[in-house]
Amino acid sequence: RAKESGRGVYRFFKREMDETIRERRTLARELRQAITDEELVVFYQPLARAADGEVCGFEALVRWKHPVRGMVPPLDFIPVAEENGLITQLGEWVLRRACADAASWDRPLRIAVNLSPLQLNQPNLPTLVHEVLIATGLSPSRLELEITESALFKDYQRALDNLRRLKALGVRIAMDDFGTGFSSLSTLQSFPFDKIKIDKSFVENIHRHDRATVIVRAVLGLGRSLEIPVVAEGVETQEQIDFLRGESCAELQGYAIGRPGPIDSLSAWTLARAAVANASEQTKARGA
Ligand code: C2E
Ligand code: MG
Ligand code: MG
Ligand code: MG
Questions:
Q1: In this predicted model, what pLDDT tens digit does every residue of 193-214 receive, in sequence order?
Q2: Which of 101, 130, 134, 281 has its CA 20 to 30 A from that of 215?
Q3: What is the pTM of this model?
Q4: Chain centre distance of CA 140
Q5: Is residue 32 packed enough to be buried (19+ CB in 10 Å), middle (13-18) or exposed (0-12)?
Q6: Which residues have their alpha-adjacent CB atom under 5 A from ion ligand 4?
Q7: Can you tell me which atom of ligand 1 is nearest the CA of 42?
Q8: For the purposes of burial, counting CB atoms within 10 Å of the CB of 205, is it exposed (0-12), middle (13-18) or buried (19 or more)?
């Protein structure tokens, strides 16, 4: 009987797995088509200087405008694209789009683009980035490439070599999701990053868990000692803004500053500046 039900469970999982594999295949096929059909869009989320609320750049975040499924978030298709290699093409498309858009802005703000592990391990990545900068006319110092530490695990030497070559172009390199990997500190030791982005899982717990608060403070101290500006991701509340500003965090990113939006919505970030500026007035009024 146990055997029977065991087999039943197996059959159940087998069916589930077949379904998952089928779904992934469909997704992969549709995604390939989406890239050629231009169903992908890049949204932009503002980053604000913590001290005065001035918007200093935007992060490019890809979305898939699926004809049936609607707006698909990146976490639903980036992993699939990473698995089957489509990420190379997808990533190149995002990079080109984001650099072209940024080059058209009337202020020379920074543009941050996420690089997947597979991309960072492509031998021709620096050449590609160089070519895109020339084609779009974007100054290298305005481009910031965000990598997570898992990007260094595939082929450590190649990844580091690529990072050095990118830096030599004048491009900035940010470490994304800091603190969530297995060896964030060694990664930080291995390369002179231009920026550290504290993962939102810590930021969201500021004042909710003592430990998170202590960790955020420690990362900010680490950044200060290493002279690497720290950005807080996922800033959602006024309380978090006040805390981070008080701890001399360099930049803030999150719904409290502005949500990711399409290129034509970017002028709305002036409102975000007002929100942060008001906060500092309030802090002053409270005598802090
Ligand atoms: P990420 O690079 O860490 O980007 C930050 C994510 O946090 C974004 O999710 C953003 O919308 C979300 N976020 C921003 N502020 C807040 C907030 O206040 N609260 C909360 N709860 N979330 C906030 P999104 O756009 O869904 O992207 C998820 C991840 O997908 C990104 O994480 C990045 O790893 C990846 N991704 C997005 N676009 C690209 C891309 O073009 N290429 C690659 N390789 N990865 C991408
Ligand atoms: Mg990022
Ligand atoms: Mg992140
Ligand atoms: Mg993330």
A1: 999 999 999 999 999 998 999 9
A2: 281
A3: 0.90
A4: 19
A5: middle
A6: 177
A7: 41
A8: middle
